[in-house]
Amino acid sequence: MTESPRIDPMRVAIGCVLAWAVPGAGHFYLGRRVKGLLFLGIILATFVVGLAFNGRVYLANPEQPLSYLATFANVALGPLDMIGRQVSYDRLIYFFPRESDRTLYQDILDKTRARILSVTHEYGTTFVLTAGLMNILLILDAFDLGIGRKT
Amino acid sequence: MESHFLIMCLFSGLVGTFFATLTRDTLREGARAGALLALTMVGVSLIIAYVMYFLPLGG
Question: To the nearest whole angstrom, how far is the Cα of A35 from the nearest Cα of chain B?
Answer without folding.
Answer: 7
